[in-house]
Amino acid sequence: MDIESKECDINEYVLRLLRDKQFQNSEYHNFLGNCYSIASAYGILSAGTLFAVLKRAKWSHRLRVMLPDILLYINAGSMTDENFRLVLSFPRRWRNAYASALAHGNLAFYQMQILNRYPASYEAFAWLFDHICHFECFTAEDMKKTLLDNPDVTSYGIQVCIDSAREKYGDSDKLTAAVNWIQNEK
Description:
By secondary structure, this protein is an all-alpha fold. The chain is built from 11 helices and no strands.
């Protein structure tokens, strides 16, 4: 790990944040001043390290502020059911920021469905919409169910997803179902 040059494994970086209060203080101030970006770290955050930082973030304002960037290093294996429960147990203000960060992670389909249950998670909805359009294993009925489960997504938001999917994958019965959904809502 080369913390001085700011290139390090994300697990080592986070563990040092948890162990070394002086390092945490320094990195927090650098983070706020935009002098340092966690983006220079590499790797995938392990489930155990994620659990540790989530537990500590409950009581540490500095870690809560830095957590959205840390969450960009997760994948489906990092986000165990227990870690998901911890993320979703934060107060709404923080939970919404974390849900948005998680939606940019490499999560499993079922994890995105869980994330999609939270109103501030348009990213999760867009990800689900795109995957339904992209993969043949999904049907127009899957599209209808996803739209039904997301009454908070506006017609404009759905149209943006339709346009993007049409550009990437062409027309399909799934997109027709989404277009019909918008037309029937008016």
